[in-house]
Design brief:
single chain; about 425 residues; alpha/beta; 9-stranded mixed sheet; 20 strands
């Protein structure tokens, strides 16, 4: 008799029988994923890294195509026809957005990066996306090109299982700011397997913001794999709002000297929401810098989990890394599980990690109510203040205002 993991693997393999692709790179990656899944089982629900999120929630899904829609963020927009346009209709010079098959024709050398990161190729869970995705989407910024206005890509999730792979390459000395938004259509039963594969090449600068806004019982598994080159910088912010069941796996490799990472996260949970984040940061070269901050607010019977590891590999001297997780419990029934960790195998480093979980300050609530502020408004103000230091770290003013408004709306206490 097959185990639950074997049955789930067979379910995904059966779904993949109907997937076709015009991209040789995608077809090759799908075969690699199929072979890996036949050899390496999916993780069980229960052991440390999957103690809260159960992959079995995908066992009743049927495959559907993911939808890309026009962005509301102006003046630049990503459109369904895969061209990158501004509001006047002009394309952005030196920036490619489109399918992997077309990208490989136009840029054969950078296209060879697709699927080469170790944790992407050797782990069973990220392979699920490439098993089921028909094509990968690519955002490529040519060397020394600087896209000064933020871009946005919106994905709508509807009934059934969507699988998509986004490849982002910031070539040498380039710069771009981008937001990915994941939203629901007004229907039940949405599920998604998402992989974001990132290359920030030498002296490049990438600012990436993921905004996940979920309703209607959505199940989502997001894998982020990034490699940061020499003197390169990446800012990555994950914002998750009211997720039914969400798992985010983060694998970030600071592979070049003086690589710099700022990684932030914010999860807003209520009802019986579950958000499980597993963060892995690898310092493999000298003089790397990491500043990591994740915050959760938890209401009702929601459950949050954060497991973070910073690895400082042998020889990665003068690493400077900080990891912090802070959580606000807004009900007695909410639960938060946290495990920030460091593994250091090099001398002459500066590393720290911290954890704090608590309740709203009753004295502050009383003080505000005594001055005429209604209880619900005081509650919302203090909660907003708690998450503010994640949002204030967003350097782009337009994006900061957009995301702050979205977060404040989702934080409002239900009357």
């Amino acid at each position: 008799m097959m185990s639950k993991q074997e049955q789930l693997t067979e379910h995904f393999l059966t779904l993949s029988d109907s997937v076709t692709s015009d991209s040789p790179l995608m077809a090759s990656r799908r075969e690699e994923a199929r072979e890996l899944l036949r050899k390496k089982p999916l993780p069980k629900h229960g052991p440390e890294h999957y103690a809260h999120f159960d992959l079995g929630i995908f066992d009743d899904t049927e495959l559907r195509h993911s939808t890309v829609v026009e962005s509301d963020l102006t003046p630049y927009r990503l459109l369904e026809d895969s061209r990158l346009l501004c509001s006047e209709g002009a394309e952005i010079e030196g920036c490619f957005v489109g399918p992997l098959s077309r990208f490989a024709e136009l840029y054969p050398e950078p296209a060879k990066l697709f699927g080469t990161q170790r944790d992407l190729r050797e782990r069973a869970v990220p392979s699920l996306t490439d098993l089921l995705a028909e094509e990968a989407m690519v955002l490529y910024v040519e060397p020394r090109r600087r896209v000064e206005v933020p871009l946005e890509l919106i994905y709508l999730l509807g009934r059934g299982l969507s699988a998509r792979h986004l490849l982002i390459i910031c070539d040498e000395e380039s710069r771009v700011t981008m937001m990915q938004s994941h939203r629901n259509l007004p229907e039940e039963g949405a599920a998604a397997l998402i992989t974001t594969e990132i290359y920030v090449r030498d002296r490049a600068d990438l600012h990436l913001y993921d905004y996940i806004e979920q309703t209607h019982g959505t199940r989502l598994l997001h894998n982020v794999h990034a490699r940061i080159g020499e003197d390169a910088r990446m800012t990555l912010t994950e914002i998750v709002s009211h997720p039914e069941r969400t798992r985010i796996n983060l694998f970030i490799d600071l592979a070049g000297k003086h690589a710099d990472l700022q990684m932030d996260g914010l999860a807003i949970l209520r009802d019986d929401n579950l958000c499980d984040i597993w963060s892995n940061i690898f310092h493999s070269e000298t003089d790397g810098h990491t500043d990591e901050l994740f915050k959760y607010t938890l209401s009702d019977h929601s459950v949050g989990s954060f497991s973070g590891m910073i690895y400082v590999e042998p020889g990665a001297i003068r690493t400077d890394a900080d990891q912090h997780n802070r959580n606000l419990l807004l009900s007695k029934e909410a639960k938060m599980y946290s495990k920030p960790q460091l593994e250091i195998y090099a001398d002459d480093v500066k590393c720290a990690h911290g954890l704090a979980t608590g309740l709203l300050d009753e004295a502050a609530l009383f003080y505000m109510e005594q001055r005429g502020i209604p209880e619900d408004e005081a509650h919302d103000m203090l909660t907003s203040a708690f998450v503010h230091d994640v949002l204030v770290r967003i350097p782009d003013e337009q994006l900061r205002e957009v995301l702050t408004a979205k977060v404040d709306a989702r934080l409002q206490r239900r009357k």
